[in-house]
TrEMBL record:
Residues 40-268 form the ER-bound oxygenase mpaB/mpaB'/Rubber oxygenase catalytic domain. GO terms for molecular function: oxidoreductase activity. Pfam families: MPAB_Lcp_cat. It comes from the Bacteria. This is ER-bound oxygenase mpaB/mpaB'/Rubber oxygenase catalytic domain-containing protein.
Amino acid sequence: MTLYEPVEAPLPVVERPIDEVVAVPPHARARRHEDDGMLGLGLLAGPANVIMQLARPEVGYGVLESRVESGRVDRHPIKRARTTFTYLAVSTNGTPEQQLHFRRAVNGAHRQVFSTDESPVKYHAFDKDLQLWVGACLYKGVVDVHRLFVGEMDEQAADRLYLQGRALATMLQVPERMWPESRAAFDRYWADSLEKVHIDDTVREYLYPIAASRLRGLQLPKPIQRRNEELALLITTGFLPQRFRDEMRLPWGPDKQRSFDRLMAGLRVANRVSPRFVRQFPFNVLLKDVDRRIRTGRPLV
């Protein structure tokens, strides 16, 4: 007879069901609400989210073969990042006017993204199933970032974020009826969709520099470059559920998980003591930039 029962280690944030919520003290709710979908530290999860989206072969080859030169993350990473982060900000916190203009701009770019006879898989950027997958990946990323840096969510906060998350898909061409009706339904959709995930050698080779945060044309001194890539791979891989790590052949284990957890804990403390403007940078600035671009007629994407 043992004197204690073994305690099962909690699942890492990126593996936990979306429908899992906890009790949150009333005094902690106000600040958490104001950061919904607008947390600058979420940029750290960006490369992992790109990998998740492109893990569906049709999305992976759609991006890899894209004719939209300015939108290629391998050639224009800063511009692509600005477009993606602006999309997140506009979808979750933008005005109806901002959302209308940005939707039109995205649609214009997507009209040029479709497969050819030489493409390994058939795809079209207006495929609603693929757009739903992209929106679902973005929403899961928002939830993971919120849990890591803002804190756990109760039922009210989780429902509020889920309602906002729906816009990440419906800002594309996804009708509201296609978005899972509840958080539990989202978990079922996510589990089923993982069966369609596959990253082949071609897409993996395209994604690895993104995982390691290699910028095209920028070469740092070798020791600095190596350390920078090690840190980037730790963060990127830490934000990936195990299924995607396996597809990318990125090694992971308890030691790496502890390193990732320690880093995230330090960033969480820094985030909590930062003023709201700093916490929400650059998303708050990007929303103002959208207004400026609409007013002056400059491209949004």
